[in-house]
Amino acid sequence: MLRYIFKRLLMMIPVILGITFIIFAIMSFTPGDPARLILGEDAPPEDVAELRNELGLDDPFLVRFVRYISDAVQGDFGTSYRNQKPVFDEIFDRFPTTFKVAFFGILIAVFIGLPIGILSAVKQYSIIDTISTVGAMLLTAMPGFFVGMLLILLFALKLNILPATGISSWKHFVLPSLAVASVTMATFIRMTRSTMLEVIRQDYVRTARAKGASKPRIVFRHCLRNALLPIVTVIGMNFAHQLGGTVMIEAVFAIPGLGSHMVTAVRQKDTPVVMASIIFVAIVAGLMNLLVDILYTYIDPRVKTQYTKG
Amino acid sequence: METTGTVTHRKRSQLSMIWFRFRKNKLAMLGLIIFLMMILMAVYVSIFGDYERAITMDMPNKLQTPSAAHPFGTDQFGRDILMRMMFGARISLSVGLLTMVLSLVVGSLIGAAAGYYGGRVDNLLMRIMDVFLAIPSTLLAISIVAALGQGMFNLLLATAISQIPAFARVVRSAILTVKGQDYIEAARACGTRGGRVILRHILPNAMGPIIVQATLNIARTILGISSLSFVGLGISPPTPEWGSMLSEGKTMMRYYPHLILIPGAAIALAVMSLNLIGDGLRDALDPRLKN
Amino acid sequence: MRRCFKTLSLILALLMLAGAFAGCGDQPGTAGESTKDSLVFSINADIVTTDCHMARDTVTGIVHYQMYETLVRDQPGEGLVPALAESWEFSADNTEITFKLRENVKFHNGDTMTAEDVAFSLNRAIASSFTASYSGTMDHAEVVDDTHVKLCMKQAFGPVLQCLSVPCLGIVSKRAVEELGDEGFAAAPVGTGPYKFVEWSSGEKIVLEAFDEYWRGAPTIKDLTFMIMTDRNTAAIALENNEVDVLYSPDLADREHLESLENVQFIAGDGSVYMWVIAFNNESEIFSDKRVREAISYAINRDEIVDGALNGFGEAVEMPIVPSVFGYDPEFKGHEYDLEKAKQLMAEAGYADGLTVTIKLNQSSTYTRPAEIVQAQLRQIGINLEFELMERAAFLSDVTTDANYDITLFMFTAGYPDADYVLYGRMHSSNIGGTNYIKYSNPEVDALLDQARASSDEAERKSLYYKVSEYVRDDVPFIPLMTDNVCIAANSALTGVRASIGEQHYVFDYAWAE
Q1: How many CB atoms lie within 10 A of CB B281?
Q2: Quick check: is B183 in a domain?
Q3: Most Cβ neighbours (<10 Å): which of A159, B46, C78, C334?
Q4: What is the pTM of this model?
């Protein structure tokens, strides 16, 4: 088992390197001069040139890339062009915020989505099934930022019971998390529903029914456990995805999270920050997926043998 | 025609079977109807619509609520929202379609190559796909647009690139399922070359999941483009696009909610209808769900 | 073994959860409960640094105005008043200024301000590339004696005192900088202002507290928190709900609503220092033809732009100097709105059938909104403006540095409210390749600008700038469009809040009404 984990961690490295290369390349082609941005449009050209020199911006692409990698491997990810602070300071400052929003969002989506999905599957084609499916579809069809805007209109403005912006207390996280939940909930509902449907048709379920087991018992002991595998995959994937993807939600609620940090850095051509943020998110996402895979072994012992075999 | 005893059954073609199952799915039909209506709207406005009306400013009449003259009201520059919404449909649908085609072609080629040749080719290609998947799609799109500049083509590229891995995966797994089958062996035994095998035997059987993925892909593209436009990286003014309408209306949404409710509803309906169609197709194509 | 692993991962998961919740509860000093001596001030962007010599943007300036002080202070309503300098004297040729410093001024770290600190600070500012637009004409500062410091300029410069009032030229503790180094100083900044630095939570807030040994007396407001709210509409909601007490730069879309609220005061001021312009690259193929530039000038309806882009909360300007900037003359008239003449000029220039040209824009709505209106107006004379929206970084590099554009819509901002800032920077031929990215070159105008800069006679300077403005109207190197009014919104119970042209908001002057 440990060998498997080790192998997976090792395999993450080329992926991370690949990401680094692609993003570095994209950033190199992005027009805009970080030095000019920092000093503003009134600064004399000599000062700008001087700053460019200081930051090493005029060297060729490969030189800069190799320099970046060699520095990074030694733990030096550079400082932000914009405010000269070490890149990871701000990333670690902001990550908990994004994590909380993503986490609570997924949590809400799971707690609402899973029961609805199960109910839909058990009572397939009933009114409940139709309403919940259509409702979920509608919700997920709306862009996350639009849902966010509607939530602000309703809860912060009309009803005035929740704050519209900021991150100072748990109340500030309710609306953004709801927005995140709305984006992912439908996936969970549909996933749960279809997996449960598959499982329900299995022979062993029919056997259990024939034996006279009660419905809830069947649902929980037999169906759910077997349906959990794909569901857990989807949850894990979504969570990992949300970590980098809360950009829009952060924009609407003006939350200082990692997503908006990355976007600002891209737009300001603050390459060190972009690189460090993406690498960070990729590593966290990779670890998350690994965690999910390990979780599999407890849900389905057969999987464990597959891992240890290879 | 097949005659079994005294009863004659008309043997349904596979396609009509699928259509039959699809029709039975009420939700999928709902989606189809909504989507067709959107297409009709886009076509109608292209022929009969007055583009000038959608982009000419009319300050004295700005920010009007829905009325007879302007069924959906006017925006902060006095432009008719109904017209803008309909033209927005044309843009969203056409860009969505183009992006889907682009990512479909590229993704399928990659997935096909990976699935068919297997081994190291498969490994390499899939690793590259993993790399792209590991980058959050919103961020990737923003980076690409920031790098290449705005404009229709760059937008297409940015949105398409994040969708390619999904297609590659779908095609690859479809191919892997089919690859082991006997008729493939047979074709190979006859001496058919790799490419031909892929095209003539494998891809047609993989069509199902590909089409499903394609439908869902258009939906995701529409969402993606509206997101990009929302942050100001999408389509430039004065072209009416739902996402930029949302972005422009956001500052006044408190006082004039119709500014955002209408484009928001448009996006929701378009995306939802496509999702319903995609799901319906998936159900219709999957014989295991036959009751 | 399996059970072991299971419990291990369960504990791990719980630890992660605990970590996530760690920062979760209500934190002290959060927005939402302002007691009578605390204040929550909402700003719409994060500051760049806490070191006053390393930044020049407006928002950072707002925070720095509380922590740092300068030799002179720009007090809204009063103009320039002595601050850390009690008095000053110009030399005969106006290239040297000797300041008599105020005594017994304390730094946040307990030190007393000396001439050494002042000279050190000024030299540090002059050396910093961030302050170039303010310190460009300054050469160096030197200590004369314990209470006098002399500032030596490279040339006589009319607006020098105005430049000395911005936080970029703030006075810092020499000892603190030398002991801590630049990075250390940024982590623990030391100034003489009424508020001292407590903490900066990146992207979220900056916390300051009253400095009781401040030389003008201990501030009334004890705890000052700057909350960063990048969305101005939701910030307005926060103000309405009393979550914040002051809202810097409210969105004009909320103006009517805020004015109608009882617990909110919407304070409108005069025109700001921001001037929207249509700028031409005077060397480009299309726009080197004066007739085309003139045609556009006659086709612009400024009032419509003010209405559509600013909701009417601004003023059309025909002079390249806005009302709040020295040199402005309300009598000045630009071109009249005349569509026929515009079309005629277009025909003369050979564009009777229309002209399609790309306009490069910073993609922020600040510029795209007026640009959309201009686009619609120019369609009437056959000009089809195709937008090329760019990120700020790309825009600054492509347009304002490389001058790689034909036409753009941007802002000329006066860093200090003197006509010299904009006109000299943008129009003097010596600045071509630098700030003069409109590539305008006219030796007569150069002479006028040089003369105005060196003179300290107000009447003379005004008439010189009037003449320069006539060149702008007749040569049309750029077209001034409009300026917006400054405004600020605050809780009705707060006194002392003023709208400020130069964005000087001194919380020291604020107090909660009883």
Answers
A1: 25
A2: yes
A3: C334
A4: 0.82
